[in-house]
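Escalation from tier 1.

The customer reports that the assembly of three entities below gives different structure tokens on two consecutive runs. Tier 1 could not reproduce it. I'm attaching the input and our single run for tier 2 to review.
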Amino acid sequence: MSLCDAEKTFILHGVKENFRVDGRDREGYRPIELETNIVQHAFGSARLRLANTDVLVAVKLEIDVPFPERPFEGKLEFFVDCSANATPDFEGRGGETLAAELANILTSAYRSPQTFNLKKLCILKGRKCWKICVDILILECGGNLFDAVSLAVKAALHNSQIPLIKSINIDGDNIELNVSDSVFDCEKLDVANAPVMVTVCKIGDQCIVDPSLAEEQCSVGSVVVAISQEYFSTVTSIGKGSLHPRTMCNSLELGQKVGIRLNKAFMETLHNIQPDEDVGFLK
Amino acid sequence: MPIDHKRINGPEESVPYELFARLSGITSEKTFEETQSANIRTDGRKFDEQRKIFLKNGVVSQAKGSAYMEMGQTKVMVSVFDPREIPNRSDYSLKGEIYCEFKFAPFSCPKRRLHQQDNEEKQYSSIMKKALESTVCLHELPNFQVDIYALVLHNDGSALSAAINAAGVALAEAGVPIYDIVASVTVGVQQGINFLDPTLSEEQMCQTQLTTEKFPNPNHAVVIISKLPMQQQLCQFHQTGYMSLDQLKSALELLTKTCETIVPLVQKCLLSLVTNSIKP
Amino acid sequence: MSRKKELLSKVGLRLDGRRADELRRIRCKLGVFTQPDGSAYIEQGLTKVLAAVYGPHQVRSKQKAQHDTCIINTQFSMAVFSTNERKKRPRGDRKSTELSMHLQQALLAVIKTELYPWSQIDVYVEVLHADGGIYPACVNAATLAIIDAGIPIKEYVCACTASLGNNDVPMLDVSHQEEVIGGPTLTVAALPMSGKIVLMEMSQRFHLDHLPKVLDKALEGCKDIKAILDEAVKKHIQDIGSSTGWANTTS
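Tier 1 run:
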């Protein structure tokens, strides 16, 4: 999307007066729609729509061997696929840089054991563990991709159910795992500390949250902040441009404030979600 | 991971022997306890003291500009090549581009690295690119791409910082138009203590969560920033771990202060470059 | 080991409880996304497919531009989580390239390409859940998306699969389970109103004598699918046109 100078000036003035192009204030989010349990045969899934940014996340589980230097921990992997539905530029391998950036930020955000406890995924020390593969599909890109992806991942992990292992037979080197047959015999993951990302963009002299596509083009510097229960799980500067250290501090404060508010509202929604008849994309 | 057919790799199940040595009791926890009780780091530094830096340019004759930097035991070599037309692109672009490649040599880390870039190296490449993009005058290189290659010969912590610093010097030597020199520093945080310019073991300690009964402070992180000192601009910021806002602010303050100390070294290096080229 | 299941039981019911000539439930929606020029979502049984159309717009690489027709560029992609076993790569493998080409072939037959010289139409299809009959679902979704984009077409192109059960009875709309067991699958993409066949593909084998009746069954299925898609399109036009009132003229 290319903007002319007049459009950029218009956006700049709007941000200065705390009245953006779509009527929001600097800290306002666009409407978010969340639906879980969309992909039936995945262990957990969620679809999140933030205005016209559309992200679909599915969680699959595999049994794997843990890393030798961390025998008590399971694995958590992120895979991002930018579908060509979002923009023709993503055709073939066009979306790979963006996909790699998203996957890397998510990996940094979930690295600390405080945010996600990998020890719960261990089945047999050093021999077997659960590997959670989180697959993210970007269907439409309307700005603020990082926030949408992080929220969708959190919802999908909240929705996931890990089957319980009833028994383990160890016969020399052969290990047989007996997974419970019942569909209801499973445990949920604890996502209270899972990080929520907030993109803070500096436009002119002010910082805004949840930029639309046009606003992203006008920003002189952006920071993505991942907040987990008031703590910063990862902070990365993205896009082209540099920031003064004081602006950086202001952005971090704003990001934290908004992140805590967003997380609270999100967790409330997640707890109140009713399993409805599947609507998916038909609504 | 793509299979490497050109080299004879060891069996896939092989594991570095240090893992078994670790079982004899040296853990991150112990290292931190010792450090905390002695109030001095394992290599004798204070908490906010940097390691000795060695910086030399013109080390790679084939490259247009190159630099070799040592921060303590960490050794990094960066080379910058002539701008060339952006490959695989048919349309004309008004602004130039940077291509950064960051690689750990297979022998540089305690665990052998593969010859292909893995995800961590790709992430470091993009962080390095972000840091250098703000300083190169891309509008003066329309349709051109500047290649920057960083190779870590010995990783003992802060490798990415060293690479970014060396890249700044290499860019200056290559004559690529830049706004300002780049200064980059890393800090590790554990239990509220800022470990400036951490060694590899300190970095690993700052990435782990120590048991919470003995050490109640949940802050642990590694923060790396790059700054354009004259412009007072942070061109790159990356933190990973778990930190509170106050801890992050104090780390940021320490880092911005430390970036100023690198400036005289870089200036001395560039000055010697100019005087040597003038002398007959 | 389970004993070999029959495709058609003695009572005439298939593995999922359908009769031999019953289609799976089809639900579809046009205009799912705002960014693409046209988009559609279709569910055939458990198979879910999203299609997006961009265009007509300027050709990206000047060498490919043609002076008298429009280029149709298709991409078929399956989400990593769409199959039971997690796929490593969403696209780029041989099967995806082949299906992209087949999709392009089907669409070239109906899109009025002579109206847009020097242009390109991009059709992107994403499979969210694969449960048999993914190619027909893609073709149907692409048709709907093209209609939503407002690109003129000669008529609907619909696709359907058919199989042969108990060596005798032709069955319509094969699911993944029936494909895997080993039943032969005939995929047909056709123009239902004029009765022309655009693409025909088959896996496994059966005797040539059975071909006419299986083919007829598949073409019948295409006609039925066309009726369903047509209804969906009319409903969509009513929904979006009701604000301006022009939907009331179509009765």
